Amino acid sequence: MTARHTTTPADQVDPAGFRGAMASFATGVTVVTVRSADGDLHGMTVNSFSSVSLDPTLVMVCLAESSRGLELIEDAGVFSVNVLSHSQESVSRWFADRHRPADSTMFTGVAIELGATGCPTLREAAAAFDCRVHRLVAAGDHVIVIGEVVSLTHRTELEPLVFHAGGYRSLSAPASAGRALLHVVRGE
Ligand SMILES: Cc1cc2nc3c(=O)[nH]c(=O)nc-3n(C[C@H](O)[C@H](O)[C@H](O)COP(=O)(O)O)c2cc1C
């Protein structure tokens, strides 16, 4: 069978073609959180997460210039990256929903605790990287946010949620298709 492919010169690549090719890259899914100076909590779904350096320990996310999360992180100078576990598809959808509440009530029903930086970390996440902002790098319509990890949580028994070709996947079983309930009340 002949493999099907297209090759497009850079000056003819459109957003849909770019997104389509990027969709072949499977990622995990994170929720990036921040606690602002006035105590308000914010979270947004992000899959542009990567490790950067071991010494010092640096990670990065790329956030849209227009995102509220970026504005809050720039002000606070701290953020937390929470790697979602396989049962958290509904959490991913929620923190990507632009109609969710703009204030801390967006965390209602999500089990959290405040990490070393004061940012919320999700108790059911597979891992959490609590970070101090190391550097912000403007890049097109996004900003690369590089963070120095000040605290790390790893729940080794939890499998990650996987995002591929615009859909959610689990390593061992089909993802829960949005049926998972957020069952723990914040503030415990
Ligand atoms: C799977 C997935 C991955 C996403 N990854 C990113 C990302 O890497 N960077 C980004 O800026 N937005 C990303 N988004 C979109 C944001 O979650 C969405 O725009 C959110 O509403 C932004 O919230 P805010 O503007 O209130 O901070 C992603 C959404 C989904 C569903």
Average pLDDT, rounded to a whole number, is: 90
Order of helices and strands: HEEEEEHEHEEEEEE
Helix content class: 10-25%
Write down the overall geometry.
Answer: globular
> Using only CA atoms, what is the Rg?
17 Å
The level-1 CATH class:
Mainly Beta
Biggest sheet overview: 7 strands, antiparallel
Instruction: Please state the structural category.
Output: mainly beta
- Domains, number: 1
| Parts with pLDDT < 50 across at least 5 consecutive residues | 175-188
| Overall strand count | 12
Ligand catalogue: flavin mononucleotide
Distance N to C terminus:
57 Å
Biggest β-sheet: strands ordered side by side in the sheet: 3-2-6-9-10-5-4
| CATH architectural category | Roll
What's the short version?
By secondary structure, the protein is mainly β.
Task: Write out key terms for the chains shown.
188 residues; mainly beta; Pnp Oxidase, Chain A; seven-stranded antiparallel sheet; three-stranded antiparallel sheet; 3 helices; 12 strands; globular; disordered C terminus; binds flavin mononucleotide
Please specify the SSE layout and strand pairing.
Layout lengths: L14 H8 L4 E2 L1 E6 L5 E6 L2 E5 L4 E7 L3 H9 L1 E6 L5 H8 L15 E3 L5 E3 L4 E13 L2 E13 L6 E4 L2 E4 L18
The site of flavin mononucleotide has 16 residues, from strand 3, strand 5, helix 2 and helix 3.
